[in-house]
Amino acid sequence: MECDEIKNGTTTGANDDCKHVRESSVYDVLQWETFDFAGHHISIRESTDSFGALIWPGAIALCQYLENNQQQFNMRDKTVLEIGAGTGLLSVVTSLLGARVTATDLPEVLPNLSFNLMRNTKGRSRHTPQVKALAWGDHLQPDFLDSYDYVLAADVVYYHGALDSLLDTMRHFCPPGGRTTLLWANKVRFQSDVGFRERFRSTFQATLLVELPQQEIRIYKATAKK
């Protein structure tokens, strides 16, 4: 099944169970996307006025991959850090697969990220996911574990000026000789994506896990080179 086929349609309005969750005042144009992963029906609120409030295809692809490869990547009780979590779909699915998840993004993205995580994991997940602010390259150590089992990144590479900081952040949380495995899913859109991939491969020992040619999506497993 291709990634686009995973989407099951849209719905409107919020569930009454989520009315107590703090609403974001940033997002004016709201829509809902629904998915079925990890034995649960998932509803994600997104907005068309912010990159951080949209669901990107790399996140959907990595959700599907983790669900279909649980023997290879068993998330039960694993510590997981997602960088650039956006709407939180990947963090939701990883939580539902049993992981201890910390989802991170810029401060202005966190209200919607928190809303989606609480809506879809409360009473369902083995561990309550955490949400923290993280600007790539800035103040990386405080409030985070010394190491994680997995660092997840989905569609964080696109045309922006923070690619150096992104690579620095990946290296910081995946130090050489450590136990951390990085799983990175990306849809190639610009030439800068290709350049970043080459720099990524020079920094990490990377293995291509899956390639989806029609969507131009690749998923890598990587550990830092010594």
What key attributes describe this structure?
226 residues, alpha/beta, Rossmann fold, two-stranded antiparallel sheet, 5 helices, disordered N terminus
Verbal overview:
By secondary structure, the chain is of the alpha/beta class. The chain has one domain (3-224): Rossmann fold. The protein contains five helices and nine strands, in the order E-E-H-E-H-E-H-E-E-H-E-H-E-E. The protein has helices at 57-68, 89-96, 110-121, 163-173, 191-203, and strands spanning 30-37, 40-47, 79-83, 100-105, 130-133, 150-154, 181-187, 204-212, 217-224. The model is unreliable at 1-27 (pLDDT under 50).
- Largest sheet: number of strands, sense, barrel closure: 7 strands, mixed
| Strand line-up of the largest beta sheet | 5-4-3-6-7-9-8
- Alpha-beta content class: alpha/beta
Fill in the CATH topology: Rossmann fold
β-strand amount: 25-35%
Name the poorly predicted regions: 1-27
Question: Could you name the CATH homologous superfamily?
Answer: Vaccinia Virus protein VP39
Give the CATH level 1 class.
Alpha Beta
- What's the shape? globular
Distance between the termini: 37 Å
- Approximate helicity band: 10-25%
The average pLDDT score comes to: 84
SSE pattern:
EEHEHEHEEHEHEE
Q: Give the number of helices.
A: 5
Tell me which CATH architecture applies here: 3-Layer(aba) Sandwich
* Overall structural domain count: 1
Beta strand count: 9
Radius of gyration from the CA trace? 16 Å
